[in-house]
Design a protein that fits this description.
globular
Length: about 375
């Protein structure tokens, strides 16, 4: 293990730091109970009700659509207001479903309940990626090799240069544009990333066959998603098919942009560390904790903000304890920060503007050669 720590810690101190994090985790898991169970079940019920009601509001807005007899400013205002409310709450329901519910269910955070439906082994989500394929690339690869260059495929998503440790190439000149497109189509970008296209072109026969298997499953899930949002729901509106399809598209885009912002703020802001393969050789559990801490960043915000981010505004706590129920992250965050302060370790947190601002500046700066991003 050769990570250059911001403070000198000896082997004993590192292992002690890891043990104290283990203690926080074990105490929290031991305290889980009915209150936590009510939280997730109530949230799922709220999200599903919101999704259904918002779609009916979108349909209801058609009643205010101006015609030759009601072509007034008031009628247009009522139409846009009702349609806007429907689309906004549909986007909110999709954000809740993806971030605070599905992302965390698929991490196994609620498996302790032994609920036959709210369980990582059977849960499927409102996303282009099949849940089991996403769990492999995210839970196994990303959370094991967080920010390890060329092992964690979420470092730049194979598209962006987000650290000076990545060799510059002319294609990165346009990465601000790539980033904009990725944000709009983020769920599709994740789905494509999971297939690892490089292996299709230069991989072995077995790797190409595996690519074909993954691609077919992604295609099947993508077709179901397209049918749901852009065929079946719009068909219920009859002649207003395109209007409802467009409303669903806007809701999906809003969800994608918000998800992209929050995830990027947790991984790429200023002072987040990126590691090399040799840095993780001989890594112990305590060293893994250190890497998760240094390779993640939090966003300041209240309870509603936490729920809307899937509690990924506590990205540090999520990477330290990925299978801990997310509603407990605000509870353990002060203990984690106090522990970091005691050991002199950085606890990267800041406002949404600060974290996303430094992330965006980094993406622009690294589109050109050079650009030192190593924390000092």
């Amino acid at each position: 293990m050769s990570i250059q720590l911001p403070v000198p810690l000896n082997k004993h101190e590192i292992e002690e730091f890891g043990q104290e994090l283990d203690d926080i985790y074990e105490e929290t898991i031991a305290s889980l109970g009915s209150k936590d169970e009510r939280y997730i079940k109530r949230l799922i019920k709220t999200q599903r009700s919101m999704a259904l009601i918002s779609r009916f509001v979108i349909f209801a807005s058609l009643a205010f659509l101006p015609n030759w007899f009601t072509h007034t400013l008031a009628s247009w205002s009522m139409f846009y207001l009702t349609a806007g409310v429907g689309v906004f709450f549909l986007a909110v329901s999709k954000i809740l479903e993806n971030m605070e519910i599905s992302h965390n269910v698929l991490h196994g955070q609620w498996d302790w309940m032994r609920d036959p439906e709210i369980n990582s082994t059977v849960w499927e989500w409102d996303h282009a990626s099949p849940a089991d394929q996403w769990k492999k690339t995210h839970n196994v690869v990303h959370h094991t090799w967080t920010n390890v260059l060329y092992k964690d495929h979420d470092v730049g998503y194979g598209l962006l240069r987000v650290t000076s440790e990545q060799k510059w190439a002319p294609r990165y000149i346009l990465q601000p544009l790539y980033n904009f497109i990725l944000a709009i189509f983020f769920e599709w970008g994740i789905g494509i990333q999971e297939m690892n296209w490089k292996k299709f072109f230069v991989g072995t026969k077995e790797q190409k066959e595996h690519f074909g298997f993954v691609f077919r499953r992604f295609r099947a899930k993508a077709v179901r998603q397209i049918m749901k949002d852009y065929v079946l729901w719009p068909l219920l509106s009859g002649p207003f098919f395109l209007y409802v399809a467009a409303s669903n598209a806007i809701a999906n885009i809003l969800r994608n942009i918000w998800t992209n912002i929050i995830i990027f703020c947790g991984h790429f802001p200023e002072d987040v560390y990126v590691f090399r393969k040799q840095d993780v050789e001989g890594e112990t559990r305590a060293h893994w904790y250190l890497r998760q801490l240094l390779g993640s960043a939090n966003i300041k915000g209240g309870r509603l903000f936490s729920i809307m981010t899937g509690n990924l505004n506590h990205q540090i706590e999520h990477h330290l304890f990925p299978d801990m129920p997310s509603n407990r992250y605000p509870q353990v965050a002060p203990r984690v920060k106090a522990l970091c302060d005691r050991y002199g370790l950085p606890y990267n947190t800041g406002s949404l503007i600060r974290q996303y601002g430094t992330t965006t500046l980094k993406i622009w700066r690294l589109s050109f050669p050079g650009g030192d991003t190593v924390p000092k």
